[in-house]
Amino acid sequence: MKFPKVLWTCLWLISSGVSAAVSVSGDVRNPGLVELQPGARLLDVMRVAQPNPEGYWLAAAWLRQPLLEEQTRFKAGVLFDLKVLQRTALLLDRPSRAALALRLYEQVSHWPVTGRQVAVLDPISVEVGFALNSRVADGDSLIYPMRSDVVEVLGAVAEPCRLAYRAMQEARDYLQGCSPLADAEADYLWIIQPDGVTRRVGIAPWNRESGQVPAAGSKILVPVKNDDLSPPIPELNQQLAEFLATQLAGVVP
């Protein structure tokens, strides 16, 4: 009876000393696997990897394997809602809306499930306590991409656009270079900042919000109109924005 207890105790002691391996890539001095002791945190990884002090930390991404299953289900839900939108639009004789829903369905189908955890990965903010110094786990990845000089506009537009970033330019002004379709929701946009933070912004005369400026590498989602259908899908655009937020903001060198 004592042997199993002793055996489990030994196994626990052995496993408690196993290190975690976190992958770091992109604009850092020491890319590769970082071996850490259990209980290690983000700052421990950053100190070893040494992100470029002049790098674009706002676009850094933390990828976590435990989030993959949850985000896979979330993606499936977004695809389901887009398929419902397409079928409803066909039933109500809205062919352009149905075509847009199908195009978005195909686009989302190709977006990868990343396991991205929204977090501030600025080493200085983490070190001084302005950002959470969360624990990391075996299999996590940190990616520090190069700075992007574009803003992407997606959603209810004729074609996705990659526009030159302009400092302090309002989100709505980017639509001058990427005109929305007639099937776009006219009153709002969604901004997905490079750090994965999303925000719905009013752009109509009655709800216009000033000071909503996308950072370099941001994505702007032009929402799809669906409140004129029966039944409507009120959470579709928010879900699209939230899944977009899991995508990486730039290409890792």
UniProtKB/TrEMBL annotation:
Gene3D superfamilies: Outer membrane lipoprotein wza domain like. Residues 1-20 form the signal peptide. Residues 163-248 form the Capsule biosynthesis GfcC-like C-terminal domain. The keyword Signal applies. Pfam families: Caps_syn_GfcC_C, Caps_syn_GfcC_N. Keywords: Signal. Residues 33-136 form the Capsule biosynthesis GfcC-like N-terminal domain. The keyword Transport does not apply. It comes from the Bacteria. This is Uncharacterized protein. It comes from Pseudomonas arsenicoxydans.
